[in-house]
Design brief:
The complex is a heterodimer of chains A (224) and B (378).
Chain A: H1 4-27, H2 31-37, H3 43-57, H4 60-69, H5 74-87, H6 90-100, H7 105-109, H8 115-128, H9 136-162, H10 170-193, H11 197-219
Chain B: E1 4-11, E2 17-18, H1 22-26, H2 31-44, E3 48-49, H3 63-76, E4 87-92, H4 102-110, E5 116-121, H5 126-139, E6 145-152, H6 177-183, E7 189-196, E8 204-215, E9 224-225, E10 228-230, E11 236-238, H7 245-250, E12 257-258, H8 260-279, E13 290-293, H9 298-310, E14 320-321, H10 324-327, H11 334-344, E15 353-360, E16 365-375
Parallel strand pairs in B: 4-5, 4-6, 13-14, 13-15
Antiparallel strand pairs in B: 1-7, 1-8, 2-3, 6-7, 8-16, 9-12, 10-11, 15-16
The chains are: A mainly alpha (224), B alpha/beta (378).
Organism (chain A): Sphingomonas populi
Pfam families (chain A): Haem_oxygenas_2
Protein name (chain A): 3-oxoacyl-ACP synthase
Chain lengths: 224, 378
């Protein structure tokens, strides 16, 4: 039988799982993802996806470490710091993929965030800047879930549809392979963080907001 | 909802067939194929099943006759005469013939009077579509007695003659994994229930509290298919679009296939539905006395336990009731087989709650139903 505290962790896990289901459902209706799932992706689509993702991914290490600096729970802070260290150079893979897919490195490096990425990024820094930002675990759940559940199949579909080599899809493929470990780490973090109902609600709420803003980022490709 | 399962029944053809004798019924393709079969059996955990196909590849059975056999068994144990049945809902994966619907064929075979029929074709979850249709018809007062029956005759598609001269069968006599797994997993039979507007006067009935069924085809491509030709990029073309019927057959359109990887991607969505029901207060995990879960492979069950435990949705395994290992995976008949075997087990007590879970891999459907055991007039 569960004790009171683990009941809250379980409720958070259920809430997150449900946010994920709605998110995945809605993603399939975003034009670029619908074309990907329907086998109609063009190379320009893929380059645009990489270009737009890069402008937000480049900040990943920063908001995670800012959140870490605002956490007083030492073990949680340690998990956030390790996560930031693991992620903060990921954008370089994106740039390499962009070049392998026929793009120009200087162009992707000098790009601006689309209006969806702008909203996503602003929310991340806002939330990370608050005291004790444990709700950020919900944001991480969505981002890691994308990697763990979708990046692998997306990488394979993009490679096959566009006849690209592994060197052009390694960002997605890497997350497809490694985010299972990250999700296991996430489970540990959630168990540490969710001490009452309010935290559980906060974590799920962050996940909901980030899921919507992430979708907005994909809906607004190249709208800067 | 006010609808009660007052009787149940089943029709499993022939004697149980153990793993060693399976190939006598579905035939032998090659040594390598049989080795793959042993691997599939380790995955699904099934030890025996029933086949409507005899050891020589002959049969007197059809899906409609199996279903009619189940109808007869239900009525043998019902308190009402067959003339009182107003509604017949059938469920199957593949009908005997393409036209007309299975409910008409079953009606023709079963000696039922003129009644309303409804043919449900999907995969395992078609059983719950049929049951929900029957329960709503009763609950709405449209009929007072309804039958919901699921039936399958999969083994006929697994005989060597169904693979001969097709691209599915490779030169060395092996099948791709997506075609091999189902060959060693699915078997034949029928089962069903009688749904009435009141509990049986004697013995136990099941009050149907609710049935929830949701499709997730918005995000999943078809993953268990039959009747399609798969292109190199995975796109599916209906068999009828081939230049000739022979061409469709040669391109493997008529093999049943199951993308095994997709099953593991669907699992979180199936469980997510349970989480929704828990959060909405429709399922209280601690109050479920019997968990009837139709699952196609033992390996999936283990993953399910891990995910459910993490989210506080785990129903302790001692409350799970399964007959998969002895009766096999009979698709749309399986959920009714579980209900029938549980009702006959002598282990049910009035007041107990039964949660049924029926996932369908086809293009991802998840159905749950909650029932309460009742005794005597309510």
């Amino acid at each position: 039988m569960s004790d009171g505290r683990s009941l809250h962790v379980e409720a958070a896990q259920r809430g997150l799982a449900r946010v994920w289901i709605d998110f995945e459902s809605a993603l399939a209706t975003v034009p670029v993802i619908a074309r990907l799932l329907g086998g109609r992706l063009r190379i320009e689509d893929y380059r645009s996806l990489l270009f737009n993702l890069r402008q937000q991914v480049v900040e990943g290490g920063r908001w995670i470490s800012r959140a870490a600096s605002n956490l007083s729970h030492e073990e949680l802070r340690s998990l956030f710091i390790r996560h930031a260290a693991a992620e903060h150079r990921d954008y370089r893979l994106l740039e390499d993929n962009y070049v392998a897919a026929g793009g120009d490195r200087d162009v992707i490096r000098s790009g601006a965030k689309n209006i969806g990425s702008e909203a996503l990024s602003a929310f991340m820094f806002h939330a990370a800047s608050r005291a004790e930002p444990v709700g950020m675990l919900g944001a991480m759940f969505v981002i890691e879930g994308l990697g763990n559940r979708l990046a692998g199949p997306w990488a394979a579909a993009i490679r096959d549809q566009l006849g690209l080599g592994e060197d052009a899809v390694s960002f997605l493929a890497y997350h497809g392979e490694n985010d299972a470990d990250h999700l296991a780490m996430f489970d540990d973090a959630l168990a540490l963080a969710v001490t009452d109902e309010a935290v559980a609600v906060d974590v799920v709420r962050h996940a909901k907001v980030v899921a919507r803003l992430y979708r907005l980022q994909l809906e607004e490709l190249d709208n800067v | 909802m006010r609808a009660f399962i007052t009787a149940s029944g089943q029709c499993l053809p022939g004697s149980p067939v153990g793993n060693a004798a399976m190939a006598d019924h579905i035939g032998r393709l090659s040594e390598r194929c049989e080795r793959e079969g042993r691997l599939a059996l380790r995955q699904n955990g099934i030890r025996s099943r029933h086949y409507a196909m005899d050891a020589n590849g002959r049969t007197d059975w059809t899906v409609a006759r199996l279903a009619a056999g189940a109808v007869a068994d239900i009525l043998d144990r019902a308190e009402i005469d067959r003339s009182r049945i107003g509604y017949l809902a059938t469920a199957t994966t593949q009908n005997d013939i393409m036209v007309p619907g299975l409910a008409s064929l079953v009606h023709g075979e079963s000696g039922l009077p003129p009644l309303e029929v409804s043919s449900h074709q999907s995969v395992c979850a078609s059983s719950m579509m049929a049951l929900k249709g029957a329960a709503l018809q009763i609950s709405a007062g449209e009929h007072r007695a309804a039958l919901a029956v699921g039936a399958e005759f999969a083994s006929r598609y697994f005989r060597p003659g169904h693979y001969a001269e097709t691209d599915t069968l490779s030169a060395d006599g092996t099948l791709p994994r997506d075609a091999a797994f189902l060959r060693w997993t699915l078997s034949d039979g029928a089962a069903g229930v009688l749904v009435e507007d009141r509990p049986a006067g004697r013995g136990l009935s099941l009050a149907i509290d609710w049935i929830s069924l949701r499709s997730f085809a918005d995000r999943f491509a078809p993953c268990m298919t039959g009747g399609a030709m798969a292109g190199a990029d995975g796109t599916l073309t209906p068999w009828s679009h081939a230049d000739t019927i022979g061409d469709a057959a040669r391109r493997g359109a008529f093999q049943l296939r199951q993308d095994m990887d997709a099953l593991h991607r669907m699992l979180p969505v199936w469980l997510g539905e349970l989480m929704r029901l828990v959060d909405e207060g429709r399922v209280a995990v601690d109050e479920v006395d019997w968990f009837l879960c139709h699952f196609s492979a033992k390996s999936l069950r283990e993953e399910m336990v891990r995910l459910a435990t993490r989210a506080g949705c785990m129903i302790p395994e001692e409350r799970w009731f399964t007959n998969l290992y002895e009766k096999g995976n009979v698709g749309a008949a399986s959920p009714f087989l579980l209900i029938d075997d549980l009702l006959r087990s002598g282990r049910l007590r009035a007041g107990q709650r039964i949660l049924c879970a029926v996932p369908e891999s086809g293009q991802c459907i998840m159905a749950y139903a909650l029932m309460t055991v009742v005794e005597g007039p309510q």
